Amino acid sequence: MNDKNLIINTCSSPNDPIVGAHVGIQIRHVPSKIVVKSVKMKTQHENRLEAMEKLKFELVKERFCSIDENDLVDGERFSENWIAAKATSHSGLLKLPNYIYN
């Protein structure tokens, strides 16, 4: 993912300190027009990491939703539940099944 394709802004969060700094993060992926937001963490850095993971998931989900019958492996059907189960690992980082990379 190229940083030139991202617009990253701060936004208000329930965890904003009293002095007025915003810790929420909103990321817009310009080519796909996908917007994600993270406001539940206590620091801007944690919110940025979470928002990036959400963006990665949304990009993968968009790609899987555009798959047609000719792209399926052995007639396997993709669904929202399959994407959610296969796209994330126990560590919370985005992982794809090995055959996707071949």
TL;DR of this structure?
With 102 residues, the protein is α+β, with helices and mostly antiparallel strands. Helices cover 33% and strands 17% of the residues. It is elongated.
Using brief descriptors, characterize the structure shown.
102 residues, alpha+beta, Double Stranded RNA Binding Domain, three-stranded antiparallel β-sheet
Helix percent band: 25-40%
Tell me the name of the CATH class.
Answer: Alpha Beta
Q: What is the distance, rounded to the nearest whole angstrom, between the alpha carbons of the first and last residues? A: 19 Å
Which structural class matches the secondary elements?
alpha+beta
Question: How large is the share of residues in beta strands?
Answer: 15-25%
Shape verdict: elongated
How large, in whole angstroms, is the Cα Rg?
16 Å
Mean pLDDT, all residues: 77
Number of helices: 3
Q: Biggest sheet, strands in spatial order?
A: 1-2-3
How many strands, what sense, and barrel or not for the largest sheet?
3 strands, antiparallel
H and E order: EEEHHH
Unreliable residue runs: none
* CATH level-two architecture: 2-Layer Sandwich
Number of distinct beta strands: 3
Q: Provide the CATH topology.
A: Double Stranded RNA Binding Domain
Number of domains: 1
